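INPUT
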Amino acid sequence: MKAVRLFTDIFIITDFELRKVWHDVSQIFIRAVQPVLWLLVFGEVFAQTRLLPTGNYNYLQFLTPGVLAQSVIFVAIFYGFNLVMDRDMGLLHKLLSTPIPRYSIVLGKTLSAGVRSVIQALVVFILALILRVHLILNPLTISGVLVIIILTGMCFSSLSIFLASFFKTRERMMGIGQAIVMPLFFASSAIYPIDIMPTWLKVVAHINPLSYIVEAMRALLVTGDYHRITLDFGITVLATAVLVVLASTSFSRIIR
Amino acid sequence: MNMIEVDGLAKRFGQFIAVDNISFKVDKGEIFGLLGPNGAGKTTTIRCLLTLIPMTAGQASVAGINVLKKPQQVREVSGYVPQDVSVDGDLTGYENLLFYAKLFHISRSVRQERIQEVIQFMELTDKTNELARTYSGGMMRRLEIGQVLVNRPRVLFLDEPSIGLDPAAKRMVWDYIERLRDEFEATILLTTHDMNEADHLCDRIAIMNGGKIVVIGPPAELKAGLGGDIITVTSANANCRQALQQLGYRLLPQSQDSACDLVVDEGERKIPEILDRLKSEGVNTLSVSLKIGTLDDVFLKYAGKRIGEGDLTWQTTISARRTARRHGQ
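OUTPUT
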């Protein structure tokens, strides 16, 4: 009975978060500009130079999973900012005065980040198909990538909510969004292989969950090489779980 | 029965004492007002009662439920309308109501009925399916109150319910609040810095200043406690003051020979009598004005300053302005 209540609560929050997106679909396309630039401009140009050792795959194939991950992070990292906005208005106080438990609110919001990420990723997928990037697409790889995308959305929106409960102001959260996304992106295997990084950066890349997320999607969509996929999934699930717990426990600090 | 009981409530933020050892009780069906300037501790008190922030010291119960021991249950029977905008502009009016009906776990069988009832009661029929951000200030406020009404709360907490509204919308909100008490049998705790609002709406008020409650009572009683109304008489004759003193009237110290302030009960009835008696003493009056005691005077008496002179922090100012702006002022 308690579990049922938990799931209903989470789905209520997710449902209404997604209705907001539904009322203003344009934001999906605005958020798509950046990934489109990476794929269409950066990707196309670098593909011509053939400077990066991407093995048997062309650069656009290599880059697509990285850009997928990046588009997801861009959606998720602003959840903390939105929460601060809700707090600055009266929305969050009112929400917290209802009987719904705090962790359900956090889980509901992060789950909606996951689902929004899927919508956002669809735009990148469609673009990749238009650019004729060769991807392995079958029910298994597609559902695998969907799971990874939802987890990534949950993972980074929790991170964002966790940070918001300490930094608390819009200005700081704006800055933090920028300050986190790019370093995470560059210190991962998203746009170049880890092998060519200097040693210090390799270390960072190895503890960066984004590397594992990208690696999992690359294995599913591009290489079909599954020998590290259990590790990749394991780390993604672990990082998500840790951050969701941290966000849930720190969450109510935001109104103090 | 007491629907709200507060005993020795205190709240500190670091060194700053926001609420300083306050106690009060609110009876079932009462409209109780916390009146005071911004920064007096009204909102903090409400947030402590609603279990949004932990209290530093003291005890409190809402509808007989201990706030410290059973926060979840307190939230189930309470409805909170914060001062700032609390409807989601990116959802329609209906969705805003549905969202809260679900959050309060209203069972599916009565959900639609409750929502329609609120839509009727709050007169939101016209724009139910439009995004809330297109609503006028008054309508947004009605939707904000409507959101918590779907739960039929036993205790309703309204933080500055009419802030930022134009006079007509303000009147309308006042009417709703009175009907809420009568038709939904809710007990209402509201905060306000508006004397008229407190005077018009509240059965009893607690005047707050600097985190403390300085006086509690029905508005009429508090005003009566001022000792009466003030009549100002000016005259061309220099013996006006002397004459009034001889007639046995109580004069305020700032009175001059030809311009006197008198303290009387029921001022409007005393004016003819004063004029007649002055005339028989040979004093011609030039003008008479009457100032009926207000809650502002009550506040002045107990807090030592006028309510508008409250120490505004920039944060409360910004918050109030933002609210006013969002409500279309």
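end of record. The longest strand of chain B covers residues 2-13.
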